[in-house]
Amino acid sequence: PAAAAATARAQAQELGAQPTAAPSSGYAVAVLGASGGIGQPLSLLLKLTPGVRELRLYDVAPTAGVAADLSHIATPARVSAHSGPDALADALYGADLVVIPAGVPRKPGMTRDDLFNINAGIVRTLVEGVARFCPRAWLAIISNPVNSTVPIAAEVLKRAGAFNPGRLFGVTTLDVLRANTFAAEVLGLDPEAVSVPVIGGHAGATILPVLSAASPPVQLPDDRARALMARIQDAGTEVVKAKAGAGSATLSMAAAAARFAASCLRAMGGDSNVVECAYVASSLVSGLPYFASPLRLGPAGIAEFLPLPPMNGVERENLEAMRGELDASIKKGVDFVANPP
Ligand code: NAI
């Protein structure tokens, strides 16, 4: 079998395929909330991601079925199932990357902040586990409201003496995918050829796609640029309405989180060319203590804060206008940990 595998690898290389990581190398990735609407397709995509050695699926709901199902896919990642609070330690122990899509999603008429009361406590508990069992892991938070759950995670990690601001990320990649897709539609281009930086936060007006700094440039009359921006900001609600009570974006979110996770793993592995927008702790960029902006990732986490993209007048106004809302969401998260309800 070893000779056959070597021949197959040689053939794949001849065909120009990337050799995948050998089963003994790669990283351990834990998905917390793995049985959910996002968790399942995200786990599927991670099972297909090069560089994943172990895929640990954790949820308060059963995970055995999803794990058994995914384990039959012929990729190196070894899948394990962990259900219920007693299994959290095993899911997290020594993990390199922890992705958290646990929590309730929106229903029509709800804002992301309406989820705070339930999801704040879920994120706090899970991050307490991260601080205890894998304090050096990179942590990617999907659970909404991201503008508050990332500060919650940071406060929990600080209290445990395990806070590394270069390794804590709020996942805003879906805003980037939406901006790229919708801008490409307007420009008549392939979405994969379009790149729009999205800064700020991950809720309503705090989502600021900087269309004027897109590559290739998105040059539109003011009214069309405003309409495009509004569509990007409301895109999550578009999905919530279409699902009519059955939840929010799950499949596109899974694709976004899988892209972000793959970027993290590539950076961990030494690729120095990885740039993603994410919502992180730093007042360097905007003056606010948390902000989403383009980052260069490196083996130890954030390697460089790239400068904010140049903005036109309307975009600068929007940046100023969002500050109050973002600041309030950050304070709400910090306060939740300082003065638990
Ligand atoms: P879902 O309800 O389908 O799945 C959530 C999963 O979390 C369930 O399997 C549930 O059992 C699990 N869960 C609940 N409490 C838990 C705990 N204490 N520990 C572990 N697992 C727990 O929800 P869905 O659609 O997957 O959304 C998850 C979250 O992602 C929501 O908060 C949603 O708002 C957010 N979201 C974030 C986006 C972003 O761009 N950052 C985009 C879309 C959704």
TrEMBL record:
GO biological process, one term: carboxylic acid metabolic process
Enzyme class: oxidoreductase
EC number of this enzyme: 1.1.1.37
Residue intervals of the Lactate/malate dehydrogenase N-terminal domain: 29-170
Recorded GO CC terms: chloroplast
Domain of life: Eukaryota
Family matches, as Gene3D superfamilies: Lactate dehydrogenase/glycoside hydrolase, family 4, C-terminal, NAD(P)-binding Rossmann-like Domain
InterPro entries, A to Z: L-lactate/malate_DH (IPR001557), Lactate/malate_DH_C (IPR022383), Lactate/malate_DH_N (IPR001236), Lactate_DH/Glyco_Ohase_4_C (IPR015955), Malate_DH_type1 (IPR010097), NAD(P)-bd_dom_sf (IPR036291)
Gene Ontology MF, one: L-malate dehydrogenase (NAD+) activity
Ranges where the Lactate/malate dehydrogenase C-terminal domain occurs: 172-337
Catalytic activity: (S)-malate + NAD(+) = oxaloacetate + NADH + H(+)
Identification of the protein by name: malate dehydrogenase
Organism of this sequence: Chlorella ohadii
